[in-house]
Structure formats: structure tokens, C-alpha cells
């Protein structure tokens, strides 16, 4: 297989590789309970599954999305050298499929993990995974924060992944409990997150009224994905610890 990856299409791929190379495979990360090796396994599995599902769609077929356990199990059995090769091979395959998908309507819906995604979101989702997991490895360095703060990161997190990101936290609610919060970033749309009786809502809207919490764009993306910036002063709120604690439980990520 040609192992080339178009770094104009996947701008965040090389920074992710650089971050991995700077750490030992068994080094801890900001992603709870995951080492760098675990992240590499996860990323290889992501690339493989995104390519498999989108590739099948291009062939006029529909395939179910496999679970993390199904796609990552064979990767976990590999040694570090073979795993590194597998990561590059899976990413190169996703690159090929993404290039082939350029010729089909961008608004086509493709089944993915119990929902649908638009065709361009498949490559975009891998880009987002690279941004997020690079931060997991490096922490809050300037480059990682800049990538997290890009507007498309918030938009993709909300539109393509939003409801799944809230479901884990919604399951922690007491019966009949309702949460609604307005997450504000200066100069950007507010982000509304809500959950009640197993139903979740997430949307971007114009700023209006008081915010539940205020932060910067990079930290807001981290919060959506169940993470926290190293500096807690980047998150400001006057709603009190009970309300803020409930919002943070909702934002538990996957």
C-alpha cells in the first residue's frame, strides 16, 4: 500500500506523529487510564473503521460500525513496531478513501455508530481525533491550544459528535433531573447543552443572557470531550459549585 498521507487534507496528522515520537509508548497521558500506546491503538482503529465504513458506502454497500473492542483488539496484540506500521497503513488507507470520496455529493448521509455523518465529516473526524489526542499527549502547549481553538473543532464537535458526547453524562442524572447550561466564549456563539429523562440537546446559538460558564475556545472543546485544561482559572463561573458540578458531570465525554 502507498503509505502517503496528504498533509494538506489531514493537517493535524504530522503534529500527532511528532507528539507520539516524543514519548515512550508506556507514558501516561491526559486521557484517563490511557498510555501513549493506547492512544496509538485507538487512532489506528479509528482510521481503519472510518475508511472501512466510508469505503463501503462508495461501493454502494452499507456496513455496521464495529465497536472499539472489535477494531482495537487485533491492534492490542501487536508489538510496538508492528503497531506503528499499522497506524501508518490504516491512515494511508483512509487518505485513499477520502480522496475517492471527493467525487460524490458532500451532503450524502452515511451510517455511523447509530447515527449518520456527511461524507466530508469522515476525514474531518480523523482530524479532530488527531487534535484531541495530540493534546492528550502534550498537554496545554501553545500549538495544541491553537489547534483546539480553531472554529471548525467546535462546529464538528457539536454537529457531528455532539449528542453522543452528552449521553454518558446524561446517564449519571437522577430520575427527573434536568440540566441546561450555556457555555460562552468571547466573540463566538454560545454553546447550549441540555439533558433530561435520557434526552440530550446540544446546539450553537447567539449569545444571550448570563452564561453558566465562560472560557476560551480551546478549553470549551476540551470540556465537551470530558477533559479539563491544566489551568482551572481558564474556566470562570458564578453559578455556584452545585450547578457547575452538575454541568461538569454532564460533560463526561465518551
Automatic annotation (TrEMBL):
One GO MF term: metal ion binding
Gene3D superfamilies per the UniProt record, alphabetical: dinb family like domain
InterPro entries cross-referenced by the UniProt entry: DinB/YfiT-like (IPR034660), MDMPI_metal-binding (IPR024344)
Classification via Pfam families: MDMPI_N (PF11716)
Domain Mycothiol-dependent maleylpyruvate isomerase metal-binding, chain residue ranges per copy: 14-137
Protein name in UniProt: Mycothiol-dependent maleylpyruvate isomerase metal-binding domain-containing protein
Annotated source species: Mycobacterium noviomagense
